[in-house]
């Protein structure tokens, strides 16, 4: 079903070509067809790059071709004294000429106009002049319309390229591929260099936790295959929170596998909105993603089980209303490891915690989340961002130390303490900026 996207692109390309041809040759409504093609192309990317403003400009350009048609035809006719019949004849002649190749296309309007003029005035020199005028008018019109059509494609491409290039430089690592590895027991890292995606394999199929930015699906699939597993065997899809950098490929994997999406109830509306209801990023389409409807809604403490693996969901809200921490226990080499996938407790720039809060109760939510995280004592913690737990360093050591390289109880405590400090500092800063303590 990934073919739906491919089909959209094929249809878009076909319509754009047909539209450009139609702008020159009669018989195809060139401008609307070209516009429809560009609309399909924008749609194929869910309007993330080419949005409604560009599409409105494209629609106006498409409309303007009809004005050009009227102007050039009228100019040709007026200059050469052609009658209405001559102009009608030129159009009909052009249409018939289509069936006779290039000579037909060029001669058709001339013959048609001359014939039309003759039926009106029966004056051969006037008919010849009308034929020349109508033909020139049609040619001039075709050239002008083609120029507009090419400008439309150019505008689309320019907006698309600029938008794609607007990716912040510091986020480059979000998109770069990285070697997948097995971390401990059935848990594998299949994300990008910075964005975690964790494959938990079982005899009954697999669980995928988080999925990086939209567009990362081919990298994640390649990583899964490289480890010797089948992406099609994913049975359950989980997330830590509904931000584009972690759920960007969720819709893709749901389509590919038919897996069940289990989500903390408070993040389900955000997930279903594709990021449109986000308290920070609602108006930033670059951080939107393909919406996903959850199959199962979770509450704090709910368990998700598959093939002998059990993951427990803890509600750790604030970063998003339904931000989730997952914990599980896995075995390796006769030892068991407590593993936690902590939900993010970062306070993103623009978040208001105290006065006019980003959402009612957000500060208490963050405190609840930090309290839950402080109560956990994992041997291994695997956050949604690789830089949050020195994935690169641990992976390098894992080459010789195996799973032990990821055991980092102290690192977990330090990180949660630092998150707590950053959060409380922002609360204090907001309170002082306002001159009175918040509640
Ligand atoms: Zn986030
Ligand atoms: Zn993130």
- Tell me the span between the first and last alpha carbons: 50 Å
What composes the largest sheet? 7 strands, mixed
Kindly identify the CATH topology of the largest domain. Answer: Metallo-beta-lactamase, Chain A
CATH architecture of the largest domain: 4-Layer Sandwich
How many structural domains are formed by the residues? Answer: 2
Q: What is the succession of H and E elements? A: HHHHHHHEEEEHEHHEHEEEEEHEHH
- CATH class of the largest domain, named Alpha Beta
Strand order of the largest sheet: 1-2-3-4-5-6-7
Multimerization status = single chain
Mean pLDDT: 90
Q: Radius of gyration, Cα only, in angstroms?
A: 31 Å
List keywords for this structure.
439 residues; alpha/beta; Metallo-beta-lactamase, Chain A; 2 domains; seven-stranded mixed β-sheet; 14 helices; 13% strand; elongated; binds zinc ion
What does the model show?
The protein is of the alpha/beta class and 439 residues long. Helices cover 51% and strands 13% of the residues. Strands 1-2-3-4-5-6-7 form a 7-stranded mixed beta sheet, covered by helices on one side. A hairpin with a 2-residue loop joins β8 and β9. It has 14 helices and 12 strands. It folds into 2 domains: 3-165, no CATH class; 174-434, Ribonuclease Z/Hydroxyacylglutathione hydrolase-like (Metallo-beta-lactamase, Chain A, 4-Layer Sandwich), CATH 3.60.15.10. It binds zinc ion (ZN) (2 copies). One zinc ion (ZN) binds at residues 241, 243, 319, 344.
């Amino acid at each position: 079903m990934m073919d739906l996207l491919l089909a959209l692109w094929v249809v878009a390309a076909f319509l754009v070509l047909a539209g450009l041809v139609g702008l020159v040759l009669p018989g195809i409504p060139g401008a609307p067809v070209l516009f429809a093609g560009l609309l399909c192309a924008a749609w194929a990317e869910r309007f993330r790059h080419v949005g409604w403003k560009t599409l409105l400009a494209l629609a106006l350009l498409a409309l303007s071709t009809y004005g050009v048609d009227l102007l050039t035809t009228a100019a040709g006719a007026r200059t050469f004294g052609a009658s209405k019949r001559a102009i009608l004849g030129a159009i009909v002649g052009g249409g018939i000429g289509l069936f006779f190749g290039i000579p037909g296309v060029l001669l058709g309007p001339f013959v048609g106009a001359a014939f039309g003029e003759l039926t009106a005035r029966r004056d051969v020199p006037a008919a010849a002049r009308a034929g020349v005028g109508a033909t020139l008018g049609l040619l001039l019109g075709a050239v002008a319309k083609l120029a507009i059509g090419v400008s439309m494609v150019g505008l689309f491409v320019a907006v698309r390229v600029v938008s794609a290039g607007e990716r912040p430089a510091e986020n480059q690592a979000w998109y770069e591929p990285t070697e997948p590895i097995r971390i401990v027991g059935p848990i594998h890292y299949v994300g990008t260099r910075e964005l975690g995606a964790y494959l938990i394999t079982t005899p009954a199929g697999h669980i995928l936790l988080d999925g990086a930015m939209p567009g990362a699906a081919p990298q994640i699939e390649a990583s899964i295959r490289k480890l010797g597993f089948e992406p099609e065997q994913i049975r359950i899809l989980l997330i830590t929170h509904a931000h584009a950098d972690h759920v960007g490929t969720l819709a893709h994997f749901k389509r590919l596998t038919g897996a069940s999406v289990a989500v903390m109830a408070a993040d389900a509306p955000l997930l279903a909105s594709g990021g449109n209801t986000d308290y920070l990023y609602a108006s930033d389409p670059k951080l939107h993603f393909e919406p996903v409807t959850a199959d199962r809604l979770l509450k704090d403490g709910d368990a998700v089980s598959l093939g002998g693996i059990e993951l427990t969901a803890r509600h750790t809200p604030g970063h998003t209303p339904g931000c989730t921490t997952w914990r599980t226990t896995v075995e390796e080499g006769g030892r068991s490891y407590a593993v936690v996938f902590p939900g993010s407790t970062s306070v993103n720039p623009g978040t208001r915690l105290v006065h006019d809060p980003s959402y009612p109760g957000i500060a208490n939510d963050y405190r609840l989340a930090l309290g839950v995280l402080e109560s956990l004592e994992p041997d291994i913690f695997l956050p949604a961002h690789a830089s949050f737990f020195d994935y690169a360093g641990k992976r390098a050591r894992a080459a010789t130390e195996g799973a032990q390289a990821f055991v980092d109880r102290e690192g977990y405590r330090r990180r949660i303490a630092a998150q707590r400090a950053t959060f409380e500092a922002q609360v204090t800063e907001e309170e002082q900026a306002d001159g009175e303590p918040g509640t």
